[in-house]
Specification:
The chain is mostly helical and 212 residues long. It contains 9 helices and no strands. It has one domain. The mean pLDDT is 87.
């Protein structure tokens, strides 16, 4: 997306920007605090095993190292780009907040059992910082795929990065299926949810800099 030319010096001096980025960060922290409790509930709740012809064709394989190496590399690159524009960073944070809220809602409304043949994802950071027990039912929908799809939409006007993140979304989505960490529908559903979060964040128009 195109963003107005707006420097960090101007942003920090702007009351509206400070208010919205502070509120957004506060809500993201609140979501991070709530997440372990939500996953604890989801883990003990009985769910449904979905039929999945795609997973049935894939032999489960441990590919966590490839998933997270690519995921975190693309996240770091995205952050480097986003911090260059206060406006774009705020939109990205608000969209990610919406994705997180969508995931909480769908997790609570769609009781699913882990896919057959699940191999636990070995996240080098999140597992150590947030979760004391393995999470097997973090399913509908895929947050890993969702965040990369969000970056694709955020960088849609930059052809090279749009294709980088489209490719990254595809590769991570396929690897999640190889790991049997998600159902196919989880991976596919991440795209429309990411698009919706992006569109809502843009339409909120909470702050778009001096040119808006």
């Amino acid at each position: 997306m195109n963003s107005a030319s707006f420097t960090w010096r101007s942003a920090i001096r702007n009351d509206t920007f400070r208010k919205h980025i502070t509120l957004t960060l506060f809500l993201l922290i609140a979501c991070a605090i709530a997440a372990p409790r939500i996953f604890q509930f989801v883990e003990i709740r009985p769910g449904v095993i979905l039929p999945d012809p795609v997973l049935n064709m894939l032999q489960p394989s441990e590919v966590s190292v490839y998933i997270f190496a690519l995921l975190y590399l693309l996240i770091v690159i995205a952050i480097i780009h986003l911090v260059q524009s206060p406006t774009l960073l705020l939109v990205g944070l608000q969209a990610y907040l919406l994705i997180t809220i969508f995931r909480f809602i769908t997790l609570l409304l769609a009781p699913l059992e882990a896919p057959p043949g699940l191999l636990l994802l070995q996240d080098p950071f999140v597992d150590k910082l947030f979760y004391q027990q393995p999470v097997t039912k973090d399913l509908f929908f895929s947050g890993h795929t969702g965040i990369l799809a969000l970056f694709m939409f955020l960088f849609w006007d930059k052809a090279v990065w749009r294709w980088v993140y489209a490719t990254g979304t595809l590769v991570v989505g396929v690897l999640l299926l190889v790991q049997h960490a998600h159902y196919t529908v989880d991976v596919l559903a991440a795209l429309p949810f990411a698009w919706l979060a992006f569109k809502l964040a843009v339409k909120m128009k909470t702050f778009r800099g001096p040119a808006s």
